[in-house]
Specification:
single chain, about 325 residues, Rossmann fold, Helicase, Ruva Protein, domain 3, Zinc Finger, Delta Prime, domain 3, 3 domains, two-stranded parallel ribbon, 15 helices, about 55% helix
């Protein structure tokens, strides 16, 4: 059961199986059925269905001959101008096999292409549009030069909501005969942060431990700070007990090997559940963002988190 990678084993194979991108699916499906897609740019965060969408489009267009008419390149690995001049151009200039009069080139992580490579790509898209269509996938469309964006139909993918990820995971749970608690599903979703691929990997990792998946197992596997533990830290701080808050925080970070950035994320989520005034929540959220920036820039995480706890103590005493 665990030998196969579930993100590949359960990858959607039809438009109807894609979750959470209904408007985009409708538009792309209608273009695909017309057998005449434009150049397309898929923009959005990781794990929301961009690569899957490209594969489904190609399979719908070419059927059994899709491999002969499809070239997939990861631009973060092959990001220089020579790749565009050689691999891409050589593939684009040859005629397709079958009824569809064009081939498809899929450039994943296209925002990693160098500016020179993007300029070369722009000319290739222009010169070979009769024999080839390009599908570009990126996390940040702002890193794609304007001439390429103007040649593409742009589709912006969004992070998946809990209901969408749960719908997808339920298919896997049923097929693999797993038992998953509702609380465990909630933790999987929070750990995935809207990334369906990450959610699937978390599910598979926990299933390797036990087919009966509990919240405790999920928390152990993803190594995130438990919300109840973070709440204890913040309650101590707001009550003015800085020493106990500090000890509990150190205990979480050392015993459970939780990084400073993960603790910050958990604190940021828990702030809005605290019984304090909205104005204080806003100030503490601002302070949390400042501390996260310092940690990312290389400051000592524990010192910075102690500083954040001090802000909570002052807020609890009405001096924040």
């Amino acid at each position: 059961m665990i030998n196969e990678i579930w993100t590949e084993k359960y990858r959607p194979s039809t438009f109807s199986e894609i979750v959470g991108q209904q408007e985009i699916v409708k538009r792309i499906e209608s273009l695909t059925k017309a057998m005449n897609i434009p150049h397309m740019l898929f923009a959005g965060p990781a794990g929301v269905g961009k690569s899957t969408m490209a594969l489904i489009v190609v399979k719908e267009l070419f059927g059994e001959n899709w491999r002969e008419n499809f070239l997939e390149l990861n631009a973060s690995d092959e990001r220089g101008i020579n790749v565009i001049r050689e691999k891409v151009k050589n593939f684009a200039r040859t005629k397709s096999l079958g009824k569809v009069p064009f081939k498809v080139i899929f450039l994943d992580e296209a925002d990693a292409l160098t500016p020179e490579a993007q300029q070369a790509l722009r000319r290739t898209m222009e010169n070979f549009s009769a024999t080839c269509r390009f599908i570009l996938s990126c996390n940040y469309s702002s890193k794609i030069i304007d001439p390429i964006q103007s040649r593409c139909a742009i589709f912006r993918f969004k992070l998946l909501e809990r209901k969408d990820i749960e719908k997808y995971l339920r298919r896997i749970i049923q097929a693999e005969k797993l038992i998953v608690e509702d609380e465990a599903m909630e933790i999987i979703y929070e750990g995935s942060e809207g990334d369906c691929r990450r959610a699937t990997n978390i599910l598979q990792s926990t299933a390797a431990v036990s087919p009966n998946i509990t919240a405790e197992i999920v928390s152990t596997v993803i190594s995130n700070a438990k919300p109840k533990d973070i709440r204890v830290v913040l309650d101590y701080a707001l009550s003015g007990d800085f020493e106990r808050a500090r000890e509990k925080l150190l205990d979480i970070m050392l015993k459970e090997s939780i990084s400073g950035q993960d603790v910050i994320k958990s604190i940021q989520k828990e702030i809005w559940n605290l019984p304090i005034e909205p104005e204080i929540k806003v100030k503490l959220t601002e302070k949390t963002g400042e501390i996260e920036f310092r940690i990312i820039e290389g400051s000592d995480p524990f010192i910075q988190l102690q500083s954040l706890l001090a802000s909570f103590v002052l807020a609890g005493l009405g001096k924040g």
